[in-house]
Amino acid sequence: MSRLHDLPFEWTIGLRYTRAGRRSARDSFISFISLISMAGIALGVAALIVVLSVMNGFQKEVRDRMLSVLAHVEVFDASGSLPNWQATAAEVSRHPLVRGAAPYVEAQAMVTREDTVRGIMVRGILPEQEPKVSDVAAQIVAGKLADLRPGEFNIVLGSALARGLRLQLGDKITLIAPQGQVTPAGVLPRLKQFNVVGVFEAGHYEYDSSLAFIHIKDGETLFRLTGPSGLRLRVADMQRAPEVAAELAASLPGSLYIRDWSQQNRNWFAAVQTEKRMMFIILTLIIAVAAFNLVSTLVMTVTDKQADIAILRTLGASPASIMKIFVIQGALVGLLGTGIGVLLGVLVALNVDVIVPFIESVFHVQFLPRDIYLISALPSDLRWPDVWQIGGMAVLLAFLATLYPSWRAARVRPADALRHE
Q1: Which of 312, 385, 317, 374 is nearest to 52 (CA)?
Q2: How far apart, in Å, are the Cα atoms of 282 and each of 52, 60, 140?
Q3: pLDDT of residue 1
Q4: For 312-327, what is each residue's pLDDT tens digit?
Q5: Residues 322-356: pLDDT tens digits?
Q6: Of 181, 215, 219, nearest in space to 80 by CA
Q7: CA dihedral 34, 39, 42, 48 (to 10 degrees)
Q8: Terminal Cα-to-Cα distance of the chain (whole angstroms)
Q9: Per residue in 109-143, pLDDT tens?
Q10: pTM of the predicted protein model
Q11: What's the DSSP call for residue 228?
């Protein structure tokens, strides 16, 4: 009690009003409304933290699966061919953040089997160099990437593409190159039969259904190139890939073009960021509704405590001190609600991988069927800057909600308040 008495009187009275609840039925009702406001802020904050963490988790999961197939940075020549790729690879490898470089050939083609025709992206690679820049070798579910040997015209297909064409290891498919062959009868497409020697599964439908790998020499032969299309690079920190790409663009000679993974998938990442912003705004409204419930709570408190306000004013309390009392009361409710919400949201976000399977087992439901989403567990990526931003916003809204009722309390006239007592 001595510590409470050592506080300024505004804090002492504000704390007393916050925990008041046994002196009268009206006090109990006001305290109940304050409790509801606190619970609303806590639930809103927790929901926002959990939802943003799950959205971040989905974004990270999809991004990682994309980058298991895509390169962090690509270097290619304006002519479409990079014959002296070894010298360029040695040059880019001098950058401290570049961890690997491998040549590639990439072009669109048609694949046919019986009466089925599909448009695909064909990527020619060096099997011994590819693990430096992608995880394809680890994603092989049938066959081996090393079976891509020059001159044998072997091919590794995505799992969805192989299922769609009803292909198994050892089957043959026909690739149709877009570059035609001029003959006396006109321009004819160039066809080449390939042997299926492997199937990979990246977990990203776009690539599992439309990407195929062949040996780089077979790709140069099929597409009539004099060398690789360019180089694919892997950097130590993929978040710094744009920075690495800009530095390489400034240092590499010749007519080389450089792009990073964020440029290749700009529309997808822009859509995800838009969704996150809209979800943030929508869930913020929940916190705003709960925070502005404090307005009604404090208005009722001011109405109920007019006699106390009048006595304080006659004892010499200034309007600013009266205003501070009710700001403290509302701010404490906001701080407590925000603190509880942050704690609850962080605990749930960090344990989504335990909570969701428990709910699924109890209610016999499955939120993410693997055959549809290719992700069986709900991912979560808690980011502390998001937590601080959400907590700060909730406290700010609670503080703003206290201003009008506190201003009204400061305008109470002692004579008018005591006349009705």
Answers
A1: 385
A2: 12, 22, 42
A3: 45
A4: 777 777 888 888 888 8
A5: 888 888 888 888 899 999 999 999 999 999 888 88
A6: 219
A7: -120
A8: 30
A9: 999 888 888 899 999 999 999 999 999 989 999 99
A10: 0.73
A11: -
Do 99 and 244 form a contact (C-beta atoms < 8 A)? no
CA 151, CA 124: separation in Å to the nearest integer?
12
Asked whether 274 and 282 are in contact (CB, 8 A), the reply is no
Is 22's pLDDT higher than 60?
no
Q: What is the C-alpha separation between 63 and 99, in angstroms, rounded? A: 19
Strand pairing class (186-200; 140-143): antiparallel
Closest alpha carbon to 405 in 321, 290, 327, 311: 327
pLDDT for 374 beyond 70 = no
- From 9, 213, 188, 24, select the one nearest 111 (Cα to Cα): 213
Q: Which amino acid is at 50?
A: V
**What single string gives the DSSP state of each residue in 176-219?**
EEEEEEEETTEEEEEEEEEEEEEEE--S-HHHHTTEEEEEHHHH
- Can you say whether residue 278 is alpha, beta or left, with left for phi > 0 and alpha for psi between -120 and 50 degrees? alpha
